[in-house]
Amino acid sequence: MTISILGCGWLGFPLAKSLLKKGFSVKGSTTTLEKISVLENARIDTFQIVLSEEEISGEIDAFLFNSQILIIDIPPKLRGNSNENFVAKIQNLIPFIEKSSVEKVIFVSSTSVYSDAISIDLITEKTIPNPDTESGKQLLEAEKILQNNSNFKTTIIRFGGLIGEDRHPIKFLAGRENLENPDGPINLIHQLDCIGILEGILEKNCFGEIFNAVAPFHPSRKVYYSKKAQELNLPLPKFDESKPSVGKTISSEKVSTVLGYEFQRPEL
């Protein structure tokens, strides 16, 4: 089976390498010329492809040719003052998927499609999304475009905050002051579990679904990040206790029950 991974970045690249070890044929895309040799050295069939609001540049037809499954793992990049139209990028991609051999799609989305201010104790896949960020709004719209297309079956995977050996939010939060939501719960997931869950979807052939995926570990932001700072000998973050905390707790029970998945890093 051939799998095309659109976006061989922080998550897509190690996923591609893991799938190769499992015997899949893997095509991967990158936006940068410099990374082509890195991917090719890992035996990934590599294409330079750039999605914009107006067009797709690169050999998109060849990238999708003879692939049965497409994994879309490109971040919206909508933080700050960005006016980027992520939805338009996905809409531009649709005709190329429709005319290709791709039958199934996995779209990497985010738990940001659920509002932080939601007044529900536990968020499941049955919770109606109500995003309060531009990124969350555009991700939700992109999810709908893909899932409503009858030419292929799409599974949506909504990951929480991504962490790994080289990536942890405490490195950004250490020593900062007046951080909000000290009592809000964390909803993070380790890179190893992201890869494991994506591979579980492939192994179980679980398409036409939506999954929330965060580690089943939800201490408060203050407790968790203070402990992490101490472990790494970093300055403690300081939280603003004057305002009520908001935050959501995401359930990953469906990942466990439907995919039979056991978290490798349950306590981060």
Spatial order of the strands forming the largest sheet: 3-2-1-6-7-8-11
Q: Cα-atom Rg, whole angstroms?
A: 19 Å
CATH uppermost class: Alpha Beta
CATH architecture: 3-Layer(aba) Sandwich
Instruction: Give the structural class.
Output: alpha/beta
Count of structural domains? 1
Give the CATH H-level superfamily. Answer: NAD(P)-binding Rossmann-like Domain
How would you spell out the order of helices and strands?
EHEHEEEHEHEHEEHEHEHH
Mean pLDDT across all amino acids: 95
Please name the CATH topology: Rossmann fold
Strand segment count? 11
The fraction of residues in strands falls at: 15-25%
Largest sheet: 7 strands, parallel
First-residue to last-residue Cα separation: 33 Å
Shape: globular
Number of helices: 9
Runs with pLDDT <50, length 5+? none
State the share of residues found in helices, binned by percent. Answer: 25-40%
